[in-house]
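Hi U.,

Before I forget, here's the chain from the pilot set. I'm dumping it here mostly so it's searchable later in email.
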Amino acid sequence: MQNPNRPYHRKEIDLLFTKVKAQMHQQALTRGGDGIALYTDCYTGETLRGGDRYDYEHIRSSEDVFMTYRDRLTNAEIAQVVNCPENVAVTLRTINQSKGKMRMEDWMANLRHILNHKIDLISTNKSLVNADKGIKYKVDKILSKL
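Structure:
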């Protein structure tokens, strides 16, 4: 059992996030086929190309995942969960900065966010459901090894 009261810690999360982003970038370059990265925004469904102002995004925030599982998982295990492929995506920088650490559902409760950032509810819901499934799968896999 881990210390259920330990403070939020990002070192392992950030180290793995750097590797995941590099892998995603290589895959996006391959998808682009012309030396320019090609992504689909996880919240708008729009095509993003290298040069667009986008960020790599933890769909479920690293802090939220850490706080949820810190009583059961080590920091290294939490880093694996946070950075599972289903929880890391790309979105416009303006969306990422506006949302910050908020849960997407809470951020979207303000209709202006949806309208101003052209959020596609179907794309967003798909991303959220996929992230939740990926996180649960990764946690279950880690815990089954104990």
